[in-house]
Amino acid sequence: MSKIPRERMKGMGKRSGKIGRASQQPAAEPLNIAHGALPSRDVILRFIADHPQKASKRELAKAFGLKGDSRVELKHLLRELEQEGMLQKTRKSLIRPGALPPVTVLDITTRDKDGELIGRPAEWPDDQGVAPAVAIRQSTSPAGRNGKGKAPVAGMGDRILAKIFPAADRGGPAYTARIIKILDKRRGALLGVFKDAPGGAGRLLPIDRRGEEMVIDPDYKGEAKDGDLVEVEVARLGRFGLARAKVLSIVGSVASEKAISMIAIHAHGIPYIFPPAVVAEADDAKPATMSHREDWRDVPLITIDPADAKDHDDAVYAETDPSPDNPDGVIVTVAIADVSYYVRPSSPLDREALKRGNSVYFPDRVVPMLPERISNDLCSLREGQDRPALAVRMVFSKEGRKIGHTFHHVMMKSAAKLSYQQAQAAIDDKPDDKTGPLLEPILKPLWNAYRIMTRGRERRQPLELDMPERKILLKPDGTVDRVFVPPRLDAHKLIEEMMIQANVSAAETLEKKRQVLIYRIHDGPTLAKQEVLREFLATLGISLAKGGNMRANNFNMILAKADDTPHQTMVNEMVLRSQSQAIYSPENIGHFGLNLMKYAHFTSPIRRYADLIVHRALVGSLGFGEGGITPDEEAALDDIAAEISTFERRAMAAERETVDRLIAHHLAGRVGEEFEGRVSGVTKSGLFVTLPDYGADGFVPISTLGTDYFIYDEAHQALSGEKTGLGYRLGDSVTVKLAEAIPLAGALRFEMISEGRKMPTAVRSFHKAGRRDASRARKKAGTRPPRGRR
Asked: Which SMART domains is this protein grouped with (predicted)?
């Protein structure tokens, strides 16, 4: 379980030599603007499109020679373009909406008619349509840039980090790309479902909608049986007919959960097998020594984790501050496993960890970032065993203000391994044999420190969304037993707040040392998203102030107004949708959701590569001995941040899709049954309905809603009938019938049973005005009205 909630800061080192070099594209047509004069909107938009690598406010001012008041005017003009949706701010530049950032992770998926490689972004938002194609420029020189080393040469199926340029030839892909480096050489194996065919042969049904069927000859099917999920390689491609394939391995039956998570692993290209060199390095690793370390083995640090956790990367301890200058203050100690001691820069372990970026968690398995010898043994803070750690001691006043902190390179020994439920039960006067002796000396001081730290959190006022996280409990055979929402305990919140403060301390220390690092940044919501939310809230009688200076507390006030109302869940979801996505970056803009100006991930180096980088930066800048960050790493932080941000999105998508497939499989035998649900999304083509008891989403096509003509109203998040005025809004409770379940696609289709309710007057007025305008336009154009969706 993640101990830091999922979140939707100014590097000081030199830029990577891989980024920011001049494009080899032909020069764009000159812009006839007097040097020092503020360019027009069109000229700015054209410049950004033609020079994405120079699309920051600073570079724009430099390119057009703007100084003084002209720079201020430029700032206002760029803000206007953002508000109108003409520009979109990324971590350090401006791009046109839907455009690719200057450095992007691409998957090479096909070739054009001339045989040139074509790639597409590894991750692309669903709401932006089809991902753009990118023509890959292969180097024709035997040497790399600057004449050093060998230029990377990519092939079909490879994942690459690439520098993006607008294409000079508008007749093909919109972009071209220069390979910075190859992230992953994909195997030629494909995944599909084996189906028996006449004559002892078989067919391979693809798991990807874009895939094609293949024939599997009897001699090539091995032990595969009908319904098995198999890995195959292409045996022969012909000019006519289907390709032929050979079964390499049998993953298992598509009815099993193991197969379902394997589909997501394969579909997203997640590395799940450690190469022999990586396993060998992990197996050969020796326990850390006391060199350059303080002996903290008598400090009663304890781990508090999920009951089924196999690795323990953080331990905590709290005590009253004895200083007379801090009456009733506390000292909170957080110790984090010292992964940097075992995983050194550029080693096989390090290269594989970067390729993975983070651990990926499925209901039945974990795809770890590091081999078990490291993650579950040498770096796991096991009870009663010596383990190396980086620890931070943080001093808080009784008001919850952090007075100071210090970092330490230590050898520790965990005093106890507890689950969240154990620790909480002890505090709630239900201790067991293990927690009873720990209650007074360890657990109560921890909870006292948590109460004090909560005062500081309340004053800071981070974004407080109430979005229950559902968990899937599996049966022994890997199928779904039940879906439930685990209780949110104070024990969870205690660990979360202590980890957040440790992360803040890491960022503060590294900034003070002028050490480059990777921040965890979270931009505020765009003005366009704010406007969509504002219009929606207005339909509920809730106001949202205008202006670009929004803070997390503004959204908390909105959430408070919706508490204990029928709209509570709906408002929480809409506020969540309005938020930006958190990413990693060596450039600091702060963390909007947590309302923090300095924030870096430090507390989970076993499962996140960003934390490992921060550990190395601390080891190097504080003189803690071996395992510090190297100059090459510092120069490559832009690349690393881009990669691990992409890999994080990849993991989230794979985890979400696996849950969708599991639930679809679980409900496949219940087609025709009715379920209670809630409208969780409204689109022009229909309604998304969530079944709260299962955490599953399904779709109701607009064509099945009834005989009326249904009109989509984005502002009110509603579909309403033109004649009857009856319809459905986001958040409505409804009854639906399961019409279809497609397990491999993770898709459910529903039919609406509930009748629509009378739409508010504002919605009906909006629709009537819209229909009048449309009717007038049709009469003027001499056209007939379109066929309604009925």
From this structure: RNB, S1
